[in-house]
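Record filed below.
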Amino acid sequence: MSEMLDYKSRLSDPTSRKFETFSYLPAMSDKQIKQQVEYIVKKGWNPAIEHTEPEHLMDNYWYMWKLPMFGETDVARILAEAEACHKANPNNHVRLVGYDNFSQSQGTSMVIYRGKTV
């Protein structure tokens, strides 16, 4: 049996904070972000873009970038909105969300652009 290791994430050290599954991995490339958008579109989920300051990443409320893109299937348009949000808020974390109409919940949610830590 392998040994369990403690991940050194502490509230007192903002650079160590982990905030979602993909944050333990290296930042996603443009190709990987596109693949995630394609997955959301393929599942029929409604994409949305959210952002927040790094010091508020553990809060439940993130700012919504415009409204969710109900019925949007153009991957390039979704990516353009994510990039526009990132350019308008370069120091913020930007999150891609896929809302599932049938379960009325988030089908997926991931940070695609990481802001600068405090």
Observations:
- The mean pLDDT is 87.
- Helices lie at 30-43, 75-88.
